[in-house]
User: Fold this.
Amino acid sequence: MIKKNRLVVKVGDIHIGGHHPVVIQSMTNTDTENVEATVEQILELWKAGSEIVRITVNTEAAAQATIKIKEKLLSVGCNVPLVGDFHFNGHKLLKLYPDCAKALDKYRINPGNVGKGSKREDQFSQMIQCAIDHDKPVRIGVNWGSLDQDLLAKMMDQNQQLSEPKSSNDLMREALIQSALLSAEAAVKQGLAKDKIIISCKTSDTQDLIFVYEQLAKRCNFPLHLGLTEAGMGTKGVVASSASMGYLLQQGIGDTIRISLTPEPGETRIKEVVVAQELLQTMNIRSFVPLVIACPGCGRTTSTFFQELAKQTQSYLRENMPEWKKSYPGVENMKVAVMGCVVNGPGESKMADIGISLPGTGEIPVAPVYEDGEKTVTLKGDNIADEFKNIIKNYIDKKYR
Assistant:
């Protein structure tokens, strides 16, 4: 993967673009007017690894709450950059509440939702002027479902005059791209520095997303925020996001990403952060938590013990990473193998930094442990899980301190 040479935009203390690492974003789904609930969810997302968090700013009360939210976050040592998500009335809210405009680290502006007809340009200009006045970056975020209808109508009329008109799908793709690029051009013309602009053009279709971002990467050098919008729930959302965004990231396209999953009822919001981390880590783009390599199981592994140990090990690593990353630089690159039988168990365990090969059905009830390719101990009995966790901790102490 070769990172494309793009402008660098600073959002809070985070640098986006150029050769800086791909940044993970998420968004709250609380009512922003509820300060306590929103702060709680932002902290949850931040602790899970979200490096930028977006919040909805849709009412005067939400704009006022934003100021309190920022203050509460800073009071507990959380300086995660906050992005204000504005639609329809953002120009009014930013003007009415300058302290909100100041508290936010970036504004997200949707060109399709800043106003209608003759008001569109003026209201977009007001938001850009606020960004200039407060020295804030903006994300010009175009969405498939809220495309600038005036621009689309104009392009449709022009398309009808062509000897070989484009298909409706091709026209929609081009309208997305032009909406973003023309809006960025207008912002620059007004006086917003180029290194204050990030662009996104989100669709809910994987092939459309790939096409649009490949074109954006060729036609501008603004940093690109990558995401499949309305990706869906569960495995559908994970697979669709990974397929499209993984392909683009492999080409070096994408400077900041969000996995837009629909949470299951009652499910925590942090799953989208974990999926984003795992996508970047499995592609060797960034490392966040030691990877657990585990076999899928087969007729040789009729016991569920290796599955339980793999789950416990993965949870143990993720739970301890907030402390470990302070004391053990590089530990996030570690690979741990938890294997279920003798077929691939010893081989995978030897190739990992540390690994355990559990006994399969009919095998001798012992579990050899390998560190840096060498067998160091053989575990047996009822306390293998706790003993293996202790071995992992001792290994980390020796190798990463």
In short: The mean pLDDT is 96. The longest helix spans residues 168-190. The chain has two domains: 8-283, 291-400. The CA atoms of residues 204 and 229 lie 5 Å apart.
